């Protein structure tokens, strides 16, 4: 059963997307006013549900235009002697290195870029392991719809350098994993990566 607040969040997100799409396609001035009002109401709902200021929500969507589509997040999966690479974030929790996909990057190049920026590791993307709907697999509710792509990369070399997003990196045994940021990486997702690592014929998991 879906928690009430989570269901309301999904409704508010859908209203925002419908209003944004309507504003993009309609030519009628009165319809534009109606869609804009619906969009503002969705921002008010999102602000209330996330205990934040409406201007903050408005700023998030201000640059959004046209037909609203999901955001893409890539995660690099790197193994070394059967240990998985994780990066430590500023709050002390750990996750697979990754982040938003830039419009100038491909899936593989974005995974490699984020791997180097967050872990200081040079790697080469080999294959996609999974394509996950964040809403289905990760604990933290998000205002945006997010698609997470897990990319297995082979380790070449590297040395961690302090940066604005992470404070450390390390390789972990599967039976000694640290506390994870489950909004970005869950234990189930790491287990999935392990199964793929041990099976060259592993089929991509999606949805």
Automatic annotation (TrEMBL):
Source domain of life: Bacteria
Domain Nudix hydrolase: 69-197
Pfam (any one): NUDIX
Family the UniProt entry places it in: Belongs to the Nudix hydrolase family.
Protein name: NUDIX domain-containing protein
């Amino acid at each position: 059963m879906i928690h009430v607040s989570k269901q309301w969040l999904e409704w508010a997100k859908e209203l925002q997307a419908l209003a944004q799409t309507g504003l993009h396609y309609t030519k009628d001035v009165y319809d534009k006013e109606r869609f804009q009002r619906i969009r503002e109401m969705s921002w008010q709902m999102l602000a209330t549900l996330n205990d934040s200021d409406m201007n903050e929500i408005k700023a998030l969507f201000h640059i959004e235009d046209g037909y609203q589509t999901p955001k893409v997040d890539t995660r690099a999966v790197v193994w070394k002697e059967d240990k998985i690479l994780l990066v430590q974030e500023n709050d002390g929790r750990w996750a697979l290195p990754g982040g938003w996909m830039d419009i100038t990057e491909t899936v593989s190049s974005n995974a490699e870029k984020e791997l180097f920026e967050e872990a200081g590791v040079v790697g080469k993307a080999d294959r996609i392991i999974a394509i996950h709907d964040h809403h289905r697999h990760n604990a933290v509710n998000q205002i945006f719809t997010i698609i997470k792509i897990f990319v297995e990369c082979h380790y070449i070399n590297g040395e961690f350098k302090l940066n604005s997003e992470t404070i450390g990196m390390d390789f972990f045994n599967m039976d000694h994993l640290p506390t994870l940021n489950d909004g970005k990486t869950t234990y189930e997702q790491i287990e999935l990566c392990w199964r793929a690592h041990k099976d060259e014929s592993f089929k991509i998991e999606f949805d």
